[in-house]
Amino acid sequence: MYAAWLFLAALGLTLIYGVQKILNMAHGSLYAIGAYAGVWVVGPWVAQGHSMYGSYALLVLAALVAGALVGWLAEWLLLRRFYGQDPIVLLLVTYALFMILEDGIKLVWGVDPYTVSEPYGFLGDFEVGDLSYPNYNFVIVGFAILAGAVLTAFLKYTRTGRLLRAVIHDREVSQTLGINVSRYFAATFMVGSVLAAVGGALTAPTISVAPGMGVELIVPTFAVVVIGGLGSLPGAALGACLVGLVRAMSVHYWPQGELFVIYIVMALVLAFRPKGLFAPVEARKI
Fold it and tell me: Where is it localised (predicted)?
C-alpha cells in the first residue's frame, strides 16, 4: 500500500523528466497543493452532511483543478523561458518554484494544520489475522494502478501518445517534422502537476495536512525514480515496490532505520546500474 502511494506520487515526476528532462524539485509542493485543495473543498461538504461518496469525487476534482491551474501557470510564466538551457539551470528554477509555492501555501491556507478524516474512516476496515487495515487504502492502490495503466496505454496506443514518444526520443527532429514541441511540453508539465496533486488529495484524509508536507515527499519519490531509471514508468513501478517493501520490513524489524534503508537500496542499485533498473537507451548523436 505504501508502494502504491509512492508510485502515484512519483508518476508525474518521472513523466516530466521523461519528456522534458527536468528534475522537478517543485513536485512536493504540487502534491501539497492537491492535499490542501482537497481538504479545503471536502471539509465543508462533509460538515454539511452531504453524501460521503461524493467526497471522493470532490477530492479528485479539487486536485485536478488545482494541479492543472498551478502547473499551467508555472510552465507558462516560468519554465518555458529556460528550455534549452543547462539542466542545472532548470533544476535551480524548479527549486525556486518550490520555495515560491511553499510560501504561497502558507499565504493562502495559513500555518495551522487541516484534517478531514471522514472519507478515510467511512469505508471501514478489513482484517488479516490479528491486524486491521482501513479499506480506504484500496482507493489509493486502485487509483495508482488505474493511473499507471491509463498513462501507459495512452503513450502506446494513441496518436498523441506516439507523437509524445517521438518528442521524448528526439525533440529537434520532432520539431522539424511539424510537431509543436512547446505545446507538448506545456501539456506534459500540466499532467505531471495534476498527478502530483491527485496523489496529495487522496492522501489528505489519512494525514494532518500542514506546511512542509511536500518536503517529506521529495526524498522517497526521487529515490523511486532514480532506482527505476529516470523517465521510465515500469521503472517507477518497480522502484516503488522495492522501496515500499524494504521500508515496511524496516518499520517492523528496524524502526529507527526507516529512512536510511531507502538510501541503502538506492546506493546498491546505482552501484550496479548507475542509470537505474529501467533506464531508457539513449541514442548516440554524431
Answer: Cell membrane
- Which neighbouring-strand residues pair with 132? 127
| 3-state DSSP assignment of residue 108 | helix
Cα angle, residue 80 at apex, residues 77 and 83 outer, rounded to 5°: 150
Q: What is the pLDDT of residue 174?
A: 84
What pLDDT shows up at residue 282?
A: 59
Question: Residue 231 is placed in which grid cell?
Answer: 523517465
Per-residue model confidence (pLDDT) at position 285: 54
Residue corresponding to grid cell 502511494: 5
Residue 240, C-alpha cell as written in the block: 516503488
Residue 265 Cα to chain centre, angstroms: 20
Its pTM surpasses 0.85:
yes
What would the pLDDT profile of 191-236 be if each residue is shown by its tens digit? 999 999 999 999 999 999 999 898 888 888 988 998 998 888 889 9
CB-side neighbour CA atoms (13 Å) of 26: 33
Q: Which of 207, 234, 236, 209 is nearest to 224 (CA)?
A: 236
**Residue with grid cell 488479516, as numbered in its chain:** 128
Domain ranges of the chain: 2-213
Residues (pLDDT < 70) of the chain are 279-286
Position of cell 495536512?
A: 209
Q: Spell out the residues 6+ positions from residue 240 whose beta carbon is closer than 8 angstroms to its own.
A: 3, 4, 6, 7, 10, 224, 228
How many residues are there in the chain?
A: 286
